């Protein structure tokens, strides 16, 4: 049984919220009483997710947002505050995976694409969230890194460097803002059963059996398990947790 949280009267903002870990976190926040701003670049999927949550009685708004564009990020965060009244929690989840590539052959276009979304997108999201949280003197932010932020894997240099960068952003900003009442942490998911991972498996970029065997728990994680880690880090139960890059990876990085 998962723990329960009472976020009644609070507001959360989630990027990459139309599917996978982002949608699971948005749903978990909403089911715990929070109003939620859902941001995603996929307009159709975002509106479908928002409608589903609204139909279930939750207070959410949909925000079409490409996190690689700082102006769009700023507008999405501002609209969340303007519409829902404040900003207490944020889960910066939006990110992409790229095909494995020999480090000597990778294009600058692929390198820049993965860093623009995975690293600069989280930088922009955190920047504009902090502007509101700084003014109110409270808040909790969780950034999505990866087991790839903690280890290296051949063929994945650009992706892993983007996720290592997320941890650097997280720890440095956490030290800066902890004295101001704002906690910043990151989760480092292992291989999780999400649409992105399913797409990698379908394209032959990931072998499911191998991925399961590489995680000592012998299975893929679920989006809901990642959401529970996010909610805990945003909750009073984690009130003394600052600047952590939390592995949620079925034991992968413990080996």
In short:
The protein is α/β, with parallel strands linked by helices. The protein contains eight helices and seven strands.
Q: Explain this structure to me?
A:
There is one protein chain. With 255 residues, the chain is an alpha/beta fold. It has a single domain, classed as 3-Layer(aba) Sandwich (Rossmann fold). Helix content is 46%, strand content 15%. It is built from eight helices and seven strands. The chain has helices spanning 20-31, 43-55, 70-84, 108-136, 157-177, 195-202, 208-214, 223-234; strands at residues 11-15, 35-40, 60-64, 89-92, 139-144, 182-189, 245-248. A seven-stranded parallel sheet has the order 3-2-1-4-5-6-7, sandwiched between helices. Helix 1 crosses helix 8, helix 3 (70-84) packs parallel to helix 4 (108-136) and helix 4 runs parallel beside helix 5 (157-177). The radius of gyration is 17 Å and the shape is globular. The model has no long low-confidence stretch (mean pLDDT 96). Its EC number is 1.1.1.47. GO terms for molecular function: glucose 1-dehydrogenase [NAD(P)+] activity. InterPro entries: NAD(P)-bd_dom_sf, SDR_fam. Keywords: Oxidoreductase. This is Glucose 1-dehydrogenase.
């Amino acid at each position: 049984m998962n723990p329960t949280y009472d976020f009644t009267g609070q507001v959360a903002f989630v990027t990459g919220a139309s599917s996978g870990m982002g949608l699971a976190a948005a749903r978990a926040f909403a089911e715990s009483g929070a109003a939620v701003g859902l941001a995603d670049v996929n307009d159709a999927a975002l509106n479908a997710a928002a409608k589903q949550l609204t139909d279930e009685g939750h207070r959410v708004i949909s925000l079409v947002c490409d996190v690689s564009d700082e102006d769009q990020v700023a507008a999405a965060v501002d609209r969340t505050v303007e519409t829902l009244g404040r900003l207490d929690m944020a889960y910066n989840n939006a990110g992409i995976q790229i095909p494995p590539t020999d480090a000597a052959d990778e294009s600058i276009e692929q390198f820049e694409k993965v860093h623009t979304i995975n690293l600069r997108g989280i930088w922009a999201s955190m920047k504009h969230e902090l502007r509101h949280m700084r003014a109110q003197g409270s808040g909790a932010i969780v950034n999505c890194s990866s087991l790839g932020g903690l280890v290296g894997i051949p063929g994945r240099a650009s992706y892993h460097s983007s996720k290592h960068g997320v941890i650097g952003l997280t720890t440095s900003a956490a030290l800066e803002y902890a004295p101001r009442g704002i906690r910043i942490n990151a989760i480092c998911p292992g291989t999780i059963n999400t649409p992105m991972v399913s797409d990698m498996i379908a394209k032959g970029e990931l072998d499911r059996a191998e991925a399961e065997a590489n995680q000592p728990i012998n299975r893929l994680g679920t989006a809901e398990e990642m959401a529970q880690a996010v909610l805990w880090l945003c909750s009073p139960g984690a009130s003394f947790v600052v600047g952590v890059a939390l592995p949620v990876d079925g034991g992968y990085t413990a080996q």
